[in-house]
TrEMBL record:
Residues 30-115 form the Cyclic nucleotide-binding domain. It comes from Spirosoma utsteinense. This is CRP-like cAMP-binding protein. SUPFAM superfamilies: cAMP-binding domain-like. It comes from the Bacteria.
């Protein structure tokens, strides 16, 4: 049941058999149906979620009701609201399954137990947060400096199957463009490749 997350963790830190056993006692598996929420805006985030199967997104909703996709999280991605988790304040965004999904949760109350008993996990989550920060920083710079076509191609490079798994309007939202702009962009790229 936890084979995938254990493999994922052991790519960064070595664990003994006893440590793996203890780690798994702190994990909570959860199945989500498509469109089911793992977290709703306004509720505090009390977990870190690892996506073992499926695809999730985090998004905000503005005053006009428009959704803005912040993250797309396929298998082997981690998703949470770190600000809410650390501050115990309500989350500003929602996490939703885009497909039937399976996640593994580490509840906030278990994190300190994990760090105390297995200090290597502090390193693991530090590396995880550093990599997440770098991805976010790169995405912000790309949004500011790169043309939409380049941002789209980078997304496809990083997540090659994303177009088969995510609605076009959500991809457009993630890229910060309108669905119509995405359609024109894709048409232009297609024409470039076939001329």
């Amino acid at each position: 049941m936890f084979d995938r997350i254990i493999q994922h963790v052991q790519q960064e830190i070595a664990l003994t058999t006893d440590e793996v056993t203890y780690f798994t006692t702190l994990l909570t598996p959860k199945k989500l149906r498509r469109r089911e929420h793992l977290l709703r805006a306004g509720k505090p985030c009390d977990f870190i979620a690892y996506v073992s199967r499926g695809l999730l997104r985090s998004f905000t909703t503005d005053a006009a009701g428009a959704e803005h996709v912040l993250h797309l999280a396929p298998e082997d991605f981690w998703l949470d609201d770190l600000n809410s988790l650390l501050s115990r304040q309500p989350s500003e965004f929602t996490i939703e399954a885009l497909e039937d999904s399976e996640v593994v949760l580490i509840l906030a109350q278990h994190l300190e137990l994990l760090y105390d008993r297995l200090p290597a996990f502090e390193r693991f989550f530090r590396l995880l947060n550093q990599n997440s920060y770098i991805r976010t920083q790169k995405r912000l710079l790309c949004a500011k400096d790169w043309p939409a076509a380049d941002r789209y191609q980078e997304l496809i490079r990083q997540l090659p199957t994303i177009e088969q798994r995510v609605a076009q309007h959500q991809i457009a939202s993630f890229l910060g463009i309108t669905p119509e702009s995405l359609s024109r962009l894709k048409k232009g790229l297609y024409e470039q490749q076939h001329t």
